[in-house]
Amino acid sequence: MESHGPVRVRRCGALRGGARARGNGARGAALRHPRHSKGELVGWVTIEALSVSYGDTRVLDDVSLRIPRGSLVAVLGPSGCGKTTLLRAVAGLLPVTAGTITVGGRLVTGPGVQRAPEKRGMGWVPQDASLFPHLTVGENIGFGLPRTKQSDDLYCEPGEAPGGVAGLLEGLTPSGRMARTRRALVRSNAPLHASPLAPAPISPDRSRQNNRAGRIAELAVLVGLAELVDRAPSQLSGGQAQRVSLARALAPRPDLLLLDEPFAALDPLLRSALRTEVAALLHGQHNTSLLVTHDQEEALSLADYVAVMRGGEILQFGTPADVYERPVNPWVAGFVGDTVELDGQWKDGRVECAFGVLAADWMGAEMVPRDGTRVRVLLRPEWLTLGARGSTHPPVDAVATAIAYAGHDALVSFALADPEKTLVRARIAAPDLPRVGDRVTLGICQNALAYPLAEARAANIPE
């Protein structure tokens, strides 16, 4: 049993430990068995009945989550729902009230067990890059790796002085290749004009790939920063700094990578581009990752699985398509995307509402209700179509009342031709946009979702 005493953790470094000693032999293999035969997710990281309190305030309440090996799981929720608390508890930075956390079959948190953060084999990518200003890019990347003079000298060419990471990376840049080639030509008395840009090959000795300099060089290339290893953090853009932070967290080959809203401080264009690159990198490296975010687009576009969180509880866990197209309740539906919500009545497996009688899927936990039961009907704006094209339902008359233009498409408000002039919104592609006042017909291309009224009311309860 390990000590429960206070542990000092470097705020912006990788949480170093176990994974480095165990190596990375399994990471190159594709993940072929993410589920048991019964369909239950196999958890490389398993969180069971986790509770965390700040004094008398319960922040996490009986949270359970399974993260398959090699997958990226996003925890999505509003500010104050407990996302970052969950991440910090997994990292070992917060004590838990109850529950267990296992990583790769190792118990890291449980009754009588609280492994120190640096012994959990985890990497951490914070909201801001938090780089050491007095270290270069290469030194920041290698911060969590053991350093010896021998490891830096391994990459010196014969006759060269030890150059550390910078010397190793000379072979990866045009200017560096030229400098190294010139030195080699001088030593060999060859003419200086001979092949000035010919690559100076790095020794193929595989044993050298395991030293510190080799790992830094590998990661610098991986995140596209091979040209910048000698720069100071103050000379980097926000996106470049965040790449360094990611490389630093990946350096010890962690069993689990924790990302705390790492793109929140970036501008929208850079955020969109960088998160796509990061997701591709993590999947390419078969990293197991846990990302917390309040950005719905980020969670749905990057993650293999999404856990939607509210008030310290996980309300739904599933693939992005499951969470978006079949939300467990109206609150989840409204949080992960735009909705069209209508009052309706269940009748013979369908719902009657302002659109008429619609085919519907019952989303309540209890059995399908009796005919005449009042329900809440939910549609996505993109499920509404202009005219009968692609519609599974006879179109209804409507009038365009407002347009929220977004370039590629727009959310168009329509007043239906029912007695109440019910307002709905449809997502229409830019080339097909009507003008305000145009009379159109609206169809529906997908089954409506029907929820019990009690769940609809609960969705409106403030946080």
From TrEMBL:
Where is each ABC transporter domain found? 45-336
SUPFAM superfamilies xrefs: MOP-like (SSF50331), P-loop containing nucleoside triphosphate hydrolases (SSF52540)
Would the keyword Ligase turn up in this protein's UniProt record?
no
InterPro entries, alphabetized:
AAA+_ATPase, ABC_SmlMolc_Importer, ABC_transporter-like_ATP-bd, ABC_transporter-like_CS, ABC_transpr_FbpC, Mo/tungstate-bd_C_term_dom, P-loop_NTPase, Transp-assoc_OB_typ2
Q: Which PROSITE patterns match?
A: ABC_TRANSPORTER_1, ABC_TRANSPORTER_2
MF (Gene Ontology): ABC-type ferric iron transporter activity; ATP binding; ATP hydrolysis activity
Provide GO CC annotations from the record.
ATP-binding cassette (ABC) transporter complex
Instruction: Note down the stretches annotated as region Disordered.
Output: 188-210
Kindly provide the name given to this protein in its UniProt entry.
Answer: ABC transporter ATP-binding protein
Originating organism: Cryobacterium gelidum
